[in-house]
């Protein structure tokens, strides 16, 4: 009997359960999909470096899954609270007819179980389908070619999803039982007569709060535009967050004042009714709307910035590298052997067997004061980043021209020719190269080594001279006449090489790594002549883990924040529709057409959804700009074009909740009193 009643109640209240069901479905779907990544890893042929990177990504997903599960549990309880509130009168009738509170709790438990099981099954099915697409995305991000399509199913992720959400449903059942046990029949029967207490504000106070909020937000924007996000992040937050709360606190009065001034539009159709309804709701929920706005801001920035950072890491790894491997030699070993290549040969590495050509050059610390000489030509944030995070002496490097020219010969570029009082420069930072070119075009010369050097634009080169740590090395390397570097401190000797052509690069790369490991095992006490070795292939493989981790964690957290914000907005509007049924009934009695009522409801919900999204979007434009400027400084690459794909996810999920809210609200306001 109870099962039949529970099933009938769910079927009858299907519109009420729509948002709740969609939330459960999305939660299960994404939870399964992201936790099934370990099964996707198994179908890919990953080398050692990529497998290690994949493990880092999987561990990160596990850590964040706990946070996501807790957030979703709170969200599900919040949605369930709305459902119980909607049915207070029905539950009161059950109790008045003699049904015990335990039996009522049993009905709610069965309803929760029924909806939960259906949502769990549907969510798992959608998650399995979604994970098939993620397999292709994961393979593409790990740069692995799948030989054939393989259906991916993770029993571990499925069991984990069932356990996590089973515990959530159990918590919901316990919550409902406790709530019913504490309710009084009279309160349940008359719950629809209880109105939300609205704290009114005078119009001038609302306008003042809105203006103050806008001023604080503009100050935060100004700090970001001026490139001060790194330096003044606490101040950006100090102005931006309170500014957002003040903006929403005064928004209802401000909107009403603006709308009511245009009498023609204000009194047209049901605009007066919509304005009153909307401003009243914003006035009573401005705090939660500000929180929703900030969550949407975090969502947009997280999805966008994770894509941008991921793209920057990838572009850093596959930057225009025209050589295959590099050794950072110990200066003493290179000096004693006569050269870095000779030191490698003496150690036991047959350089000619692996490389068809090599380049070798020593790098010294230059005495050029980059911050003093170029301050007015550098971006404020870029100069601050260099001064805070690097040794000022290391901002400029020095290489003797005869040694440096072995590098352009290696990559097939023309050599740099300089005279006695002339200097060259090389950087792979496009912004830095443009600043230096502007510097010399303005008639400046380079002061160094007690001399004044002439630098012309044709001797400024854009070249990537490093595989490893290129974002952390000196942003500018000056090319000196050989005799002029004797007073500088020697920092390192670099040997770059291009692999031989008689074998695939992957095989040569692995053979070289194996050779070095073999020498290490054979002579564990022998000191290596190099401090580090890396190759373009290994650098790219190592970057993949960071790139994939940033992307997946960003999407995972972004979707969680997005669903949270959308659910809260949806439930607030459904609650408003439930509270205002009598007002809509009055409109019908006054002869208002149903079409006009529906249009006013759509307008009200659309504006309510769009206001926090619009403010969040404006915040995100500046937030992403600040983050991208940091990325450009760290990786010297413009990645704005890679940011916007994540907005599609926001549009789809937000649109689904908006549509579900509108159709559910339309059904609620049609209910008879």
From TrEMBL:
BP-aspect Gene Ontology terms: transmembrane transport
InterPro entries: ABC-4_Integral_Memb_Prot, ABC3_permease_C, ABC_permease_BceB-typ
Entry annotated with the keyword Transport: yes
Topological category with respect to the lipid bilayer: Multi-pass membrane protein
Membrane-spanning parts: 17-34, 63-83, 104-137, 157-178, 204-224, 230-256, 289-313, 548-571, 605-631, 643-663
Name of the protein in its database record: Efflux ABC transporter, permease protein
An example Gene Ontology CC term for this record: plasma membrane
Keyword Transmembrane helix included in the entry's annotation: yes
Domain (ABC3 transporter permease C-terminal): residue spans on this chain: 63-184, 558-670
Family designation: Belongs to the ABC-4 integral membrane protein family.
Localization: Cell membrane
Keyword annotations from UniProtKB, A to Z: Cell membrane, Membrane, Transmembrane, Transmembrane helix, Transport
Pfam families per UniProt: FtsX
Main location, first listed in the record: membrane
